[in-house]
Amino acid sequence: MNKRREVPGIRPYDGPAGGWGALRATAKAVHQQMEIVEAPVLLLRTNQPTGFDCPGCAWPDKEHRSTFQFCENGAKAVTWEATSKRVTPEFFAEHTVSSLLKLSDFELENFGRLTHPMAYDAASDKFRPIEWEAAFERIGEALRGLDSPDQAEFYASGRASNEAAYLFQLFAREFGTNNFPDCSNMCHEATSTGLPQSIGIGKGTVSLDDFDHTDFILSIGHNPGTNHPRMMGTLHEAARRKVPIIVFNPMRERALERFADPQNLVEMATYGSTDIASTYYLVKAGGDAAALKGIMKALLALEAERGGVLDHAFIAEHTQGFDALAADLQATGWADIEKESGLRRAELEQVAEAYARSTAAIVTYGMGITQHNTGTANVKLIANLLLMRGNIGKPGAGICPLRGHSNVQGNRTVGISEKPTQAFLQRLEQVFGFTPPQAHGHDAVKAMEAMADGSAKALICLGGNLAVAMPDPQRSFAAMKQLELSVHLGTKLNRSHLLVGKQTFLFPVLGRTELDVQAGGPQSITVEDSMSMVHASAGKLKPASEHLRSECAIVAGMARATLPGSRVDWLGLIADYDRIRDLIERTVAGFDDYNRRIRVPGGFRMPLPPTERQWNTATGKAMFSVFAGVRERYEPWPDDVLRLVTIRSHDQYNTTIYGMDDRYRGVFGRRDVLFMNAEDLAAHGLEHGDLVDIETVSSTRLLRMENITAIEYSIARGTVAAYYPEANVLVSLDYIDQESGTPSYKSIPVRIRRAAGQGGVSEAA
Ligand SMILES: Nc1nc2c(c(=O)[nH]1)N[C@H]1C(S)=C(S)[C@@H](COP(=O)(O)OP(=O)(O)OC[C@H]3O[C@@H](n4cnc5c(=O)[nH]c(N)nc54)[C@H](O)[C@@H]3O)O[C@H]1N2
Ligand SMILES: Nc1nc2c(c(=O)[nH]1)N[C@H]1C(S)=C(S)[C@@H](COP(=O)(O)OP(=O)(O)OC[C@H]3O[C@@H](n4cnc5c(=O)[nH]c(N)nc54)[C@H](O)[C@@H]3O)O[C@H]1N2
Ligand SMILES: [Mo]
């Protein structure tokens, strides 16, 4: 092997994921953000029956199995919120919005917690403090002044509680619109669209217990060591039981290879670790459909050869569409499958063989499946694979989408949807006595387009950082600045807050970790995790400032000021969140006895009919579906076009950048890199460390990112990777999965050239 040149900040990471490195990083996160005395107590309360829900991710809690239920990245999320740094009116008095816009996303959030309600003042280009009620009045006036309620967009990022999300949708619907762009539209919308077609509900079907009973796990397109670290404990246990864990991912992710469980005393004491993946396939980005079809095709061949592979009884009794699927698989050629997936037939046959031998299988998946222009179809292929062997609705088996935000699933359950069901709208009408709007509203892409073309004039954001999370900042930033009204409920300052419109308000909210006291006393909120468990969460910390309000209270305040004749007793609801939960129970199915059941430690599970083999599809059966061909919709591109995927580093939470390292991928102190396969580097006449420019091929407008350092990495040929959100300049707003509206953040066709300026870093001595 020839010696690689030294590139600043790029050092291969040789250890396992987790282990002492994770504990050290936890200590550092705590040290940088908060008073050391509070931290241990706070972190011990994360995800405990009497504590608060970790805002990190939506992986469920392992009640009663371990008393130490937080992880490195959970600790970063918690300490980032519980920081002792503050953004006060004095801070805003010293900084114009224009000057703040020049700072990085990391710098903006790192200033600390917002402390006061603020309003933008155009004359001074500064945010100034404003009284809560005065702000609500001005918002109400602006909203009532619109020509139509559909000129307003109500964005939700999935951190809000069920209670806040429910009030938010109630406010918007009584006001008169179904415009609910949400983070889910950029995330698991393909799951919410695809799974109901396949199995009758847009949610995962497994529980943590199923992981104890499974004997086969297929992990596709997610990076749990960083994004769902508590899942590593579960995978670690399965690996130690010798359950085959087969990974499909274009990048080598260390945690999926080797992991040391910080909860495992022996591993920690001996510096040991456990191999996680039994086999790791570097599938090409966007090649999963081909790979999944290859596995299914091989499965049919095994059935023909020796029988007993398919679950015929299940297929006959519970499904429809198998013959069409089988015919399509016969018609799909191996050459296409191999070319598109980048994997060999023999490899896919091995996966099929292992799957055929299993008695109960789980498929886990994340953004590597959904953020493609065939995202919905990809999800349905995963359902096909499981249905072929009856792997839904039996112990140890099922489908496991890894959700994003800690309560994104709950937000959807309680009504944050631009496509509400008739049944839900009727219940709202019966219970509240107003007629909710019937027409479907805007999802995130449509909302941004409406803001860009001027047809949407107001935007209310229940959390999040919409403009930075969305594709094409050139368009989306400009769209934000055209608004007549923008309102942001947030914990920390971010770029979307600074893209001010004619009137812009910034409302500081109580976080998960903080005590929420209302007229009726201390309140708790509820959330639903990835496995449909609903449980209560109550913070105990003193709020970051006495001026903070809860998300529920702020939504109610805006609603009262906007809707003078409202049918809703907003003040009464805020006094005691039990009353909000009573209304949820009366309008959303599955919340029977809500207030009693959340008082039981661990909470309760929402109904999941597929676990009982009941299928709420149009036919009453689970449905096989056909994925025509093997390609993504926009293929084929010429051969020199690479596929760019945008990924999260280990030190970030979506648009929140905690730090500049990506430890497990060996990147330190920088984010301006492009991960490339050695052969692709060579084919482009490039070397590890050379500077390149990247250009998007699928866009009619020039989308370009300059002076990125190309680094050699173990990544599938033809696939390159860069960090989100920086690489959003390369994603065009209309490059989406047509079925679900999800932007194709992980299949951007690009060309790469040596940087126009000059290339390379100097050779190290
Ligand atoms: N610490 C932390 N936790 C988080 C988040 C965070 O930013 N930080 N974000 C939260 C949110 S909102 C979400 S949605 C989840 C995201 O969790 P993940 O789904 O794990 O998210 P990503 O980092 O986007 O990348 C997923 C993985 O997909 C792979 N991949 C990319 N393209 C393809 C493909 O075409 N096929 C396959 N098979 N794999 C592919 C990438 O190499 C990467 O390993 O995590 C949640 N939890
Ligand atoms: N290129 C590319 N783009 C992507 C993705 C990708 O993989 N690649 N992933 C997409 C995905 S999966 C998602 S989910 C979206 C994320 O999109 P968003 O959910 O909009 O973004 P976040 O970065 O999670 O939002 C961060 C902000 O939330 C606020 N916040 C934090 N905690 C709270 C709280 O408790 N309450 C309130 N009210 N506010 C709070 C803070 O002000 C913080 O600045 O991005 C999407 N964009
Ligand atoms: Mo997400």
TrEMBL record:
This is FdhF/YdeP family oxidoreductase. Its cofactor is Mo-bis(molybdopterin guanine dinucleotide); [4Fe-4S] cluster. Pfam families: Molybdopterin, Molydop_binding. The keyword Iron-sulfur applies. Residues 642-748 form the Molybdopterin dinucleotide-binding domain. PANTHER family: PROTEIN YDEP, RESPIRATORY NITRATE REDUCTASE. It comes from the Bacteria.
